[in-house]
């Protein structure tokens, strides 16, 4: 079960917990990519990277208020 679900166009970025979401945010913020295309994220995540990071930031900010 994933606690965080961040929409990215027609897909979702999933994270099990807050720490995992922070790691994923850093991954996309640094524009990293995996060597193995079969293990990498969908292309649309990279195309919409800036919007994805903003969505993660909003979700993390919302979590702090709860």
Biggest sheet character:
2 strands, antiparallel
**Shape verdict:** globular
- Summarize the amount of helix as a percent range: 40-55%
Beta strands, count: 2
Number of helices: 3
- SSE pattern: EEHHH
Helix/sheet category: alpha+beta
Q: Radius of gyration, rounded?
A: 12 Å
Please, what is the average pLDDT? 93
What does this structure look like?
It is a single chain. The protein is an alpha+beta fold. It has one domain. The chain contains 3 helices and 2 strands. A two-stranded antiparallel ribbon has the order 1-2. A hairpin with a 2-residue loop joins strand 1 and strand 2. Helix 1 runs antiparallel to helix 3. It is globular, with a radius of gyration of 12 Å. The two termini are 20 Å apart.
Task: Furnish the topology, listing elements before pairings.
Layout: E1 4-8, E2 11-15, H1 18-29, H2 43-47, H3 49-65
Antiparallel strand pairs: 1-2
Helix pairs in contact: 1-3
Summarize the structure.
With 66 residues, the chain is an alpha+beta fold. The chain contains 3 helices and 2 strands; from the N terminus they run ββααα.
